[in-house]
Amino acid sequence: MAGVITIALLDEIQDGFNRHDVDGILSHFVEECVWVMASGPTPPEGRVCHGKAEIGQVLSERYKQIPDMRWEDIRHWIVDDSKAISEWVVKGTPEGGEPFAYLGCDLWEFEGGKVTKKDTYWKIIR
Length: 126
Description:
This protein is α+β, with helices and mostly antiparallel strands. It is about 25% helix and about 40% strand. Strand 4 and strand 5 (about 100-110) form a beta hairpin.
């Protein structure tokens, strides 16, 4: 059903992230979406990206910097008709850097089956 949050929809979005398919990912987002990234310069949120164009640019740059970036051990929960949670382990090796594996989650908000907000968190072990 169109506009309904399902595990299959969340898997489809996550598959786009693992394929590095920026256009495919953004096809699930509303035009004026928001992505609150896991880190960034501005307290308390870190970095907040607004709109599909900015999010697409950030994702494209990230996939160039971390060409093997992938999400594994993915689990999803549907909270209600407008919210969901995804838990995963993100792995990759940045160009010229060390491999990483971080446990993280996304807090998703939807309207009409499209993402309005993605709020990302992950644990960095030092």
